[in-house]
Batch of 2 targets.
Target 1
Amino acid sequence: MYYKLTIEYDGKAFHGSQAQAAARGRTVQGELERALAQVTGTAIRIVLAGRTDAGVHALGQVASFALDPAWPRAKLFEALNGVLPGDLKVRAIDRAADGFHARYDAHQRDYRYLIWQAPAPAPLLRDRTWHVRKVLDVEAMHRAAQALLGRHNFASFCGGGLGVPSESETAEERPSTVRTMRAAACYVWPHSSLYEATPPADETARLLAVDLSANAFLPQMVRTIVGSLVAVGQGKWTAAQFAEVLAGADRRLAAPTAPPQGLCLLRVWYP
Amino acid sequence: MYYKLTIEYDGKAFHGSQAQAAARGRTVQGELERALAQVTGTAIRIVLAGRTDAGVHALGQVASFALDPAWPRAKLFEALNGVLPGDLKVRAIDRAADGFHARYDAHQRDYRYLIWQAPAPAPLLRDRTWHVRKVLDVEAMHRAAQALLGRHNFASFCGGGLGVPSESETAEERPSTVRTMRAAACYVWPHSSLYEATPPADETARLLAVDLSANAFLPQMVRTIVGSLVAVGQGKWTAAQFAEVLAGADRRLAAPTAPPQGLCLLRVWYP
């Protein structure tokens, strides 16, 4: 029987989502596999829909695995949450079609990046946002982000060395950095903390959201795009210059990568 | 020159707001006084508007102090935030009238308590909410809470031993447990996480808010009221029984105190 787990985690104490070859610290995959082994008594290999770096959060990451004989969903839900740590829990558990693969079958990932734009850092938001001191031109950021829509070579926004052309590789040998962006938006988030239901009147202290949805993402892609959109918001680049960075297909053209704690994987879509 | 500081803190790593006689751990007052001494080179005693227990957060706690000679506000703001730890920052700094006292001059405190009511704990909310598994009757909680409005002896909702009548004290010798509640509301919070702008359609997984505003609060008063309102929401007590708990003026009548991490001091009001 194949299962689909929807999981939430606080990325702060994880060294990313994927199990590491060497023991480099806690990972989401490692904790899930440990919990499944503890509950079922069997070693089970899971697949995650999206890789998230150390410090990146998820509200709706998806994991897939096979388990035989099948368990009742409610029983597995309670048992897993009973042994999982406080910073990683199962939100939902569904049976899936035979062969279901959380990564290969996903056709869209939705990410949200939150920026705390204010003169002072916010203690209650410090693990969930990137603090930027100066007022950002959110409308300029939104206009620039529209250049991302559609099918592009996103090499400029690809971390991990993949976005820098190598002379020893031919174009055919390089892993593809082409992806399709389906939604891109920058806007003032409708509340300025978990405890407030309305946006502040004051534009000098507010939360900003950057939403990006694509068929798939390259390593650090959201964070590198956010770093460059903030350069637009600060007036360092025009929307046209941002579009040139994208068209240049070279990581060295983009701005520094935004920090991980502002990023959250919201949802993964399946057919 | 008198100053009014509006401060925000994440209560997780604090042993409450007030400096302790014995060295029992980090306190909000201790960290603020240390930062003021470091910045100004003078030992400055501060006063906080409200006491918050270990684990309780604040978005708008207020501190008062005198500093001579006066500092420019912007310079003091930058200097203090430069040396304060990441979990405690100054949001605003204002000059105040001579003799301004953050506690005595305050005429209203607004608190918000957040409950995560869902089958599973939420990793991204675990330090900001009380997790309650079963669906609560929020409307019944709201109706019951209306009994709190006005001037009452709140001894039933007073922690720290003050709410239990002592036979060795006469009524006149006891510290007053009379307070005036100006607002009391329980409702479904309009989003279910920092990352979501709409409430969930599903009533089995949602954030609930309990808002209480009074001239002043007794020790653990909000948390004890919330504990008893949840008993109403679970169907253990009717609104009439909740009103009887209040009228009984004895802490032993109330339900267990709700945990601290769900509570946030939102705002303190001055004339």
Target 2
Amino acid sequence: VTETSSPGDSLLQSLRDIVGAQYVLTDTHDVQPYVTDWRGRYHGKASCVALPQSTEEVARIVRRCAAAGVSLVPQGGNTGLVGAAVPGYPQDAHSASAPAPVVLNLRRMNRILHVDPVGNAITVEAGCILAHVQNAAERHDRYYGVSLGAEGSCQIGGNIATNAGGTGVIKYGSTREQVLGLEVVLPDGQIWNGLRSLRKDNAGYALRHLFAGSEGTLGVITAATLKLHPRPRAWCTAWLTADNIAHVLQCLARTQSLVGERIATFELLNRRQLEIVRHHIPDLRLPADPEAPYAALVELTDTDGHARLDALMERILGELLAAGLLRDAAIAANSAQRASFWRIRHGISEANRSHGMGLSTDVAVPVAHVGAFIEEASAEVLAEWPQASIVLVAHLGDGNVHFIPMFSHADWAALPKREETADAVRARVHDVAARFGGTFSAEHGVGFVLAGELARLRAPLETALMRRIKQALDETWLQNPGKIFS
Amino acid sequence: VTETSSPGDSLLQSLRDIVGAQYVLTDTHDVQPYVTDWRGRYHGKASCVALPQSTEEVARIVRRCAAAGVSLVPQGGNTGLVGAAVPGYPQDAHSASAPAPVVLNLRRMNRILHVDPVGNAITVEAGCILAHVQNAAERHDRYYGVSLGAEGSCQIGGNIATNAGGTGVIKYGSTREQVLGLEVVLPDGQIWNGLRSLRKDNAGYALRHLFAGSEGTLGVITAATLKLHPRPRAWCTAWLTADNIAHVLQCLARTQSLVGERIATFELLNRRQLEIVRHHIPDLRLPADPEAPYAALVELTDTDGHARLDALMERILGELLAAGLLRDAAIAANSAQRASFWRIRHGISEANRSHGMGLSTDVAVPVAHVGAFIEEASAEVLAEWPQASIVLVAHLGDGNVHFIPMFSHADWAALPKREETADAVRARVHDVAARFGGTFSAEHGVGFVLAGELARLRAPLETALMRRIKQALDETWLQNPGKIFS
């Protein structure tokens, strides 16, 4: 130790010794992508970014940071929407004297470790990109059940840490339900090897379910064993339009009764959402009835390649039409048409981002209350912010509504207090959801963006329980500070 | 307080004030069924049995016991196999001076609170019998996914506390996967109301997954909201026989690939198991090939009432026969035959209990290793205890093998150290499972019977994490002492 070295220099040198100098980023330009969320809304700060290549390196980094009293922010693809992977933000939440966190980005830990098609399991490092896991499963004639917009860049570790949802939850469940086993580096740097590939294990508390969804606040997920499913061999994709939510809900309930386990997707979009997508993807054509207030993208899948899903879908649509629940419907006649239906759904994020300031929310309510929730939330938001329009995209089978008050860029720029307005709009939507027994976070997590809402909307006893667990596992609170807990 | 009342008298009087005198049992004869497990193997002791009728009564009992420093054993149908609901046993685990626990039996809290067929959810009190939940779902054209032998007497609270499995896990998951929300009385008597019916909720740590499977060591589950599923409208049940486990595993894997989500049951039985069942149910006839080393009960279900599952099953069996994987097979031609197939499976528990001393185990290994596990475990057990025979019944799709070294009553009585022998046999089987990455507890839980095995077979770091959680939520360790933790 030289006279001139600060504690920060000493930590940096240790991290360089652990992962190699080229894998510790400190240059402002290099660090920038790791301290900003992908939408560019939140700009944090970090002491450095460390890029470990192995669980042992992660453990050494965690131990070294713990010894130095420096906090850690684990990061995967950095595609989250609630700032859970953004370090040191908001700045005023961190005391000026505390050193900025170390970002622990796991992208170099991206190996597929084992695929077991007989046992229907795959073991991967946390930095594997979701699409690579999907592809590895497919190469073994199996299927990984999670699909979402960011699948080309989000990583499995982040998926697990945030219990990511997506469009396949209705059939396969959220990421949590895929997790058979985990490897986690604990806050003291010990490695918990819980990488079991068992379909059932009742030997004590379900630790994997505690780490899943904990957003890096209890340790760093370094590897996982995930469920695989038989690969679908038949698809049928349809586009439905309806006059109101009540009709769409009846379509959902009847379709579930008729073909239950075959429903792989049931996504609701409103007319405003479709207008925005069409505006930003000019060559896009809607499969049916562009003036309909609501549309639904419905997909059936089956592992039986002989299954005649088209005939089944026709029978379903016939019943729904006869019951007066549909305005119109179209079935994709081939894989090109199927892709074009999905292009509408997948175009949403980019289109909304270009279009204006969408104050996206991630509400879930009991499925039966989706219509009433939308009606009340729309009325309350528009009464106070009449310049907004209501954009809706929902995983309807999960009761999960992305209720998005959308402001034009001009209207948004004209608002005097933008950050406060964003909080106020979201709070209004969350309050309506809470009245219906709903949640303010269905699939995106809490991060720091919604930490205040967790404290505000959940019973003090519930958050106190979470704090007791946090304290029991991370007594110095150095793991991803400011996330989940405000 | 009179001079003559002991602290125990004072507690009893308080409990009588809370639930009514007739619902506090102290008479030895009355208490007996609540301090003995249903197989009659473990005989504990209790200060009394309290039978509350409401969550508020449970909370008051918990607070009163906490104040008196008396431990609590929550109890449902008392149908468990690992002694998790037996109070005060083994006696030597409790200091002579400590008062015996209070048994908190929830059978009077047996109301169906709400059924939501649109949202596919049911809310029930913890004392509801599983079969009543199944029936309530069916009355609303829905299906509850858990089926097990004790369903006529086990209770939902116990199912959740032990994360009960059964024959439907391959399709619907364990009890844990059904739990959308919980109400729990915490060790300090506060009531956590987490009775949400949301399909998705990512607002902080998944507390419901911590209480599910915690066997009453973290609090008392008083109510639950559970997932429902569309009701199956078509069934096909088949009886397969095969020469060896490898062939049965290939049958399973091919059937999964072909018809994935339709497989509702895939149960393996060996010849010895079938001999015992036939011996004890003389009028029972096997559907095919009584001399086959292995048989499998396979059931497909479908929510589509038009599904031609018989034709599908015939196609599958044709492929399996052509591949040389089957000895023989039979398809149930009608519901009476289907019932007779199931009668074989459901006759197992009673038949084994009558037949001798079955040292049942509850192992799970990765599915691909089931055959090797059975081979090695059989060889090791028979080498040391040649008087035993190996009885097998397995939920094969889950890799969950009830590997049962069976001793005749006479052979068992002749053993000098029976309790030690039982432990030694089980430990041998568990060791083999552990070599294959398996667990000693797949669906029955830990209780006190396997608490030593948890400490022995799991990494110290893993059990230390569990203890930290236990300490954080139950700092006086008065909730179901001696269970899970030895």
